[in-house]
Amino acid sequence: MTENGKLEIGIVGGTGYTGVELLRILAQHPKAFVKVITSRSETGLYVWELFANLREAYPDLQYSEPDVEKLKRCDVVFFATPHGVAMKLAPELVENGVKIIDLAADFRINDLRVWENFYGMPHAAPELMEEVVYGLPELNRERIRTARIIANPGCYPTAVQLGFWPLLKHRLVDVDHLVADAKSGVSGAGRGAKVGSLAAETSESFKAYGIHGHRHLPEIEQQLNHMAQTHVNLTFVPHLVPMIRGIEATLYGKLTRSISEDELQHIFEETYAEEPFVDVMPRGSLPDTRMVKGSNMCRMAVYRPQGRDTVVVTCVIDNLVKGASGQAVQNMNLMFDLDETLGLEAPALLP
Ligand SMILES: NC(=O)C1=CN([C@@H]2O[C@H](COP(=O)(O)OP(=O)(O)OC[C@H]3O[C@@H](n4cnc5c(N)ncnc54)[C@H](OP(=O)(O)O)[C@@H]3O)[C@@H](O)[C@H]2O)C=CC1
Ligand SMILES: CC(=O)N[C@@H](CCC(=O)OP(=O)(O)O)C(=O)O
User: Fold this and answer.
1) pLDDT (tens digit per residue) in 143-158
2) Full-prediction pTM beyond 0.90?
3) The Semialdehyde dehydrogenase NAD-binding domain covers which part of the protein (predicted)?
4) What CA–CA distance (Å, rounded) separates 350 from 291?
5) pLDDT per residue as tens digits for the range 197-209
6) Domain 156-322, CATH class in plain words
7) Does domain 7-131 have CATH number 3.40.50.720?
8) Distance from C-alpha of 187 to C-alpha of 17, rounded to nearest angstrom
9) Do residues 285 and 345 lie in contact, with contact meaning Cβ atoms separated by under 8 Å?
């Protein structure tokens, strides 16, 4: 803690989209002081030299190499890095009393054989897995408060879980035939240069990918299994759409009993009545990604089209905020007994 009671924060991976989004959010957080920010490729540069939008907020903050000795002096360290980085540094940090929030997938999947299969590397910290808490506040709030290590959920998994939760909680859908048809903006692929992210490859074009088994499938199924308290079968098809930020997930389930759209609406509203970052929109609404851009809000609407036995949920988040850095700050607030919404109050940015 600083002398004036602010949390001392480290960010590993401070030049990527989620790292910079953490900086943007923390700039408006009254209890946050960013002490260490790392980048191997930009060591020595001031943050504002790359990101002039942050010049007033961080006039003196300079990128440094990831150094465990420096990170050990923080209260909390966010890993905004590719998969496989956090698990190598976390053991020493946790041993020294530093709390960890990993935005990557190192700690998200309990079955490490499944994790190793999808992520293509051996796990470096299996001994930590038992105490990891999956950081979806709407489901795990009380456990997050006392956690030392948070597995921050994936972007698609956040939208899909929040949309299915009221239906699974009330056993309203056939768990053998769930479908999640999800679309992401290109920032979901990170800031690293890749041909697939070029404007000429992504603009005015729209495609599905990962149909045979995206790495988010085991994460989502693990969590839906917990929610349903049984094994679920999910078909998950992600798509890349020509926009920068945002995820829209259209979810389909076969109803197990007849229920009116009014009742569905009531169940959704009741489930999320106390949630600061989930908005069940009025009947007939069509949430769009623009209405959550830059905000930590998840907006959703529920339908039973033509009164038939399929329920449809449409759910939107900003992949970089509720899908990553905003949710990570929400988790930090809970872990340090702060107001859960601190730093996250800003409404969406239009247009
Ligand atoms: N983009 C999104 O919408 C979402 C991303 N995530 C996850 O969050 C994590 C970060 O994503 P994103 O910000 O998009 O990624 P980027 O590719 O944009 O940024 C990655 C950052 O990590 C640093 N880095 C790369 N390799 C290492 C390493 N071996 N050791 C230390 N630092 C390293 C990079 O800087 P340098 O190389 O200079 O050190 C860079 O700052 C990923 O795991 C991603 O899957 C989760 C939810 C949503
Ligand atoms: C558009 C795009 O490429 N999206 C990424 C997922 C976003 C992400 O970063 O995944 P994590 O949440 O697991 O970290 C993908 O499909 O691999």
Assistant:
1) 999 999 999 999 999 9
2) yes
3) 8-147
4) 8
5) 999 999 999 999 9
6) alpha beta
7) yes
8) 7
9) no
